[in-house]
Amino acid sequence: MRKSVKKCFVLLLAMIMIVGMVPASVSAASTPVASYHTHVQNVGWQDFVSDGNMSGTSGRGLRLEGIEVKLDNQGYDLGITYQTHIQNIGWEADTTRGWKSNGQMSGTEGLSYRLEGIQIKLTGTDASKFDIYYQVHAENIGWMGWAKNGESAGTAGFGYRLEGIRIKIVPVGSAAPGSTENAFVKNSVNFHIISDWFNHNKTDRNVRKTVKIMAG
User: Fold this and answer.
1) In-domain check, residue 216
2) pTM above 0.85, yes or no
3) Is residue 20 one of the residues assigned to a domain?
4) Could you tell me the mean pLDDT of each successive run of 10 residues in the chain, 216 residues long?
5) 3-state secondary structure of 108
6) 127: helix, coil or strand?
7) What proportions of the chain, in percent to the nearest 5, are helix, strand and coil?
8) Residue 96 lies in a domain
9) Domains contained in the chain, number
10) What domain range includes position 181?
């Protein structure tokens, strides 16, 4: 009996030592979780949500103005970075604002500017082990498809506000939380063609009237 107890004790001690020698990135047992909250028109900052739950509103016509995302990395070498496309500003990475990370605010507060698009990606040596998916609810469209790993989600060139967002991290190669079709829609109107058409027809009275109205 004593030999059995001693053998079990030695085995348990050996297992503890082995686990202690394994890097955190290997011994991590759970999938990392992204927590996020948004600054909503007429509401302000909402509480943090996670694991694919919605932040924002649906059916109330309220714009998202800012977002903060943080990561419970579950022992992996991971970080999170993100940027938004903001009314009157554009993509933050194209300005001095740059990408935001690990709980910093992306967007604005107190300016009443709508968010129109977002990109999110994981960083760190373990980033290749996971996919980060995100889905937005856009004005006049509703819930769009899921984007992932730095892809654009939302719209461009329409002036549509984002109203809600969901974010979820899954092991790399796992199925998306839902459809990935039409995660991002861009207005592809060729303004050069429109300009050429106006110039070609500018002697027409109706065209001149239209140009005057557009000019204010």
Assistant:
1) no
2) no
3) no
4) 49 46 46 97 97 95 98 95 97 96 96 98 97 98 98 96 98 97 85 50 51 38
5) coil
6) helix
7) 25, 35, 40
8) yes
9) 1
10) 28-186
Beta bridge partners of 117: 85, 154
- Residue 28, C-beta contacts closer than 8 angstroms, at least 6 positions apart: 73, 74, 75, 76
Count the alpha carbons within 13 Å of 121 in the hemisphere toward its beta carbon: 12
The count of residues in the chain is: 216
Cβ–Cβ under 8 Å, residues 69 and 107: no
- In this structure, how many other beta carbons lie within 10 angstroms of the beta carbon of residue 34? 24
Q: Cα torsion for 43, 48, 54, 58, to the nearest 10°?
A: 0
What amino acid is encoded at 48 in this protein? F
Q: How far apart are the first and last CA of the chain?
A: 95
**Cα–Cα nearest to 159, from 40, 63, 73:** 63
Burial (Cβ within 10 Å: 0-12, 13-18, ≥19) of residue 153: buried
User: Smallest Cα–Cα separation from 24: which of 100, 101, 129?
Assistant: 129
Structure tokens at 12: 């348990």
Report the DSSP beta bridge partners of residue 156: 186
Please report whether residue 5 resides in a domain.
no
Distance CA(32)–CA(59), nearest Å, equals 30
Structure tokens at 49: 């949500």
Beta bridge partners, 66, equal 39, 107
Token representation of residue 53? 């739950």
The number of angstroms, rounded, from the C-alpha of 216 to the middle of its chain's C-alpha atoms is 37
The span from the CA of 105 to the CA of 36, in Å, is 10
Q: Which amino acid would we find at residue 52?
A: G
